[in-house]
Amino acid sequence: MLHTLSLLVRNHPGVLSHVAGLFTRRGYNIESISVGVTENPELSRMTIAVGGDERVVQQIIKQCQKLVDVLSIKDLKYDESITRELAVFVVKTPTNQSRAEIIQIAGVFNARVADMSETSIMIEVTGNQRQIDSITRLLAQYGIEEMARTGIVALTFPSKRKPEDSSERE
Amino acid sequence: MLHTLSLLVRNHPGVLSHVAGLFTRRGYNIESISVGVTENPELSRMTIAVGGDERVVQQIIKQCQKLVDVLSIKDLKYDESITRELAVFVVKTPTNQSRAEIIQIAGVFNARVADMSETSIMIEVTGNQRQIDSITRLLAQYGIEEMARTGIVALTFPSKRKPEDSSERE
Which of A12, A27, A117, A152 has its CA 20 to 30 A from that of B159? Predict the structure, then answer.
């Protein structure tokens, strides 16, 4: 089962390698990770997608909680949270027809064409993991020259938040 | 000066903590990092934003190149690459007027309202770092309950790519 862990951490050098190390030492591969600052420049939010044995994930959560730079960690529930990801692709367009087809695919996914050359096209798209996986497979047919995915960010929906959620930053 | 490093890495446990460790050991704080799989499930792309002394960044790049799991590392030029970031915010809406104002701000940034409750609103937005910084400051006036930023992803624009760029996956 895929877990989405949301951590609020102090923006210190070393916190990322500490947290990543907890997973590595168990031979766990982090599927995706994103780290960005919050409105408080001293705090960052880290979102980690990780699959695997339930018990081991719970152990890792407990160990993360012991790290002094980890202020909170939540195991987000799938149906109570938004999970979004951003991806940018450069795809080959050997023919004008392939370019037209790719622009059409982009339209279906509400993706944006960010640049084009004679031989390739750059597409930017936002969605959940399933949507990004789908457009990746569709574009791969044409030949992906380069791609980058941010890794997911996830937050509990306001309509699903419990009163204690809002106290995490205090 | 802010550097945007784009790494293509083998999707092995440990590669993230190795790379992060190179920065930590020099007391460098990674400003943002995003790691996501590519169309080849064995490879991930890592995008790291890091500021600081030019010489030290060049040293870190050299050391990254020596890691066996790092297949390529590029220091992307600002004017030749797209840099995009995704952010999700939960903002307080104590009054109907504040909700209306926030929806208006969201419109200016082409942001999407992803959910609402009686007391808060969830906003999802994509942009470059400056745009995300701007909307963060604007929303902070209302009180941000929670936020998550992916960290940037960056790729060279197709129209600025050099022939050798496309050979990096071979």
Answer: A152
Q: What mean pLDDT value characterizes chain A?
A: 90
Express each pLDDT in B39-82 by its tens digit.
Answer: 898 999 999 998 878 888 888 899 999 999 999 999 998 889 99
Chain A residues close to B13, C-beta within 8 Å: 23-24, 27-30
Please judge whether B17 and A17 are an interchain contact, meaning their C-beta atoms are less than 8 angstroms apart: yes
Respond yes or no on whether ipTM tops 0.95: no
Report whether A125 contacts A148 (CB < 8 A).
Answer: no
pTM of the model: 0.89
Pick A47's closest partner by Cβ from B23, B90, B148: B148
Closest-CA residue in chain A for B143? A39
**CATH code for the structural domain at A2-76:** 3.30.70.260
Identify all chain A residues contacting B69, using CB atoms and an 8 Å cutoff: none
Rounded mean pLDDT, A135-147: 96
CATH, range B82-153: 3.30.70.1150
Fold agreement (B2-76, B82-153): yes
Residue to test with chain A: of B16, B32, B124, most A Cβ within 10 A: B16
Nearest CA in chain A to B14: A24
